[in-house]
Amino acid sequence: DGYEATSRNKYSRDFLMTLSQYFTHLPINFQTGSDITDALLVNLSGHSPS
Amino acid sequence: PDAAAARVGAEQPHPLEHSWTFWFDNPQSKSKHAVWGSSLRRIHTFSTVEDFWGLYNNINHPSKLITGADFHCFKDNIEPKWEDPVCANGGKWTISCARGRSDQMWLYTLLAMIGEQFDYGDEICGAVVNVRGKQEKIALWTKNAANEKAQMSIGKQWKEFLDYNDTINFLVHDDAKKLEKLAKNRYTV
After folding, report:
1. What is the pLDDT of residues B70-86, one digit of tens each?
2. What is the pTM of this model?
3. A50 in contact with B, Cβ within 8 Å
4. How many Å is the Cα radius of gyration of chain A?
5. CB contact under 8 A, A19 and B14
6. pLDDT of residue A5
């Protein structure tokens, strides 16, 4: 049935790529400061002040 | 096109079909005798295109991760482990490349998953990139290894999305668990 197909939030790669440059800050509720996040983050300056 | 993109960027958040969680296994925090998975940590769960990019743009891509690291992106209700009930009867397609060369394939894999580009997207659990000394491996985990039609479709589409021309193989988790290195691939595409 077509219900599932039409209800999906589908996004092409090209569309997703056009949005990339506008979202450069970590989500506001992102938890930093553990050994894990420190190893993973490019740098901490991208974190939105909260 | 820039103006159009700017308008798009200013709009309401774009919800994803699923919530996804990034997980990271950091070898630096692992002792020699650590049990597998004991250093696996949940990093963040996202459910919009905007939060995906906010995370992706601030985390190291595979080429910049330390050797030994495993970085996962799985649907929120699924843990990236064989033991997870959703993964238990599943398996994985794997693509390997030289150290430092997987960044674009990893991004394209993530975008295809979160953008729901797979015809059998419901069969997908998530993806993982394993960073090792000489190579980086990306694996796409799926739910029902016995569903040949779904697995073959996913394998074929994955290669198309990545513009990858070499053969890739599907290994059943249960075979890998029982037979370890002797396990044979179930499907090839």
Report:
1. 999 999 999 999 999 99
2. 0.89
3. no
4. 16
5. yes
6. 46
Closest residue by Cα to residue A5 from B162, B17, B69: B17
Q: Give the containing element (helix H, strand E) for A5.
A: helix A3-7
Q: Give φ, ψ of B139 to 5 degrees.
A: -125, 140
Interface of A with B in 3-42 (CB under 8 A): 8-13, 15-27, 30-31, 34-37, 39-42
**Cα–Cα distance between B170 and B188 in angstroms, integer?**
6
- Which one-letter DSSP state was computed for residue B35? P
Query: Residues 6 or more apart from A24 whose CB is under 8 A from it?
Result: A46, B53, B54, B57, B58
b/e code B24-38 from CB counts within 10 Å (16+ = b): bbbeeeeeeeeeeee
DSSP-derived secondary structure for B128-175: EEEE-SSEEEEEEEES-TT-HHHHHHHHHHHHHHHT--S--EEEEHHH
Pairwise CB contact (< 8 Å): A42 & B58:
yes
Burial class of residue B14 in the structure, from the number of CB atoms within 10 Å of its CB (0-12 exposed, 13-18 middle, 19+ buried): middle
Question: Nearest by CB to B17, which of A9, A16, A27?
Answer: A9
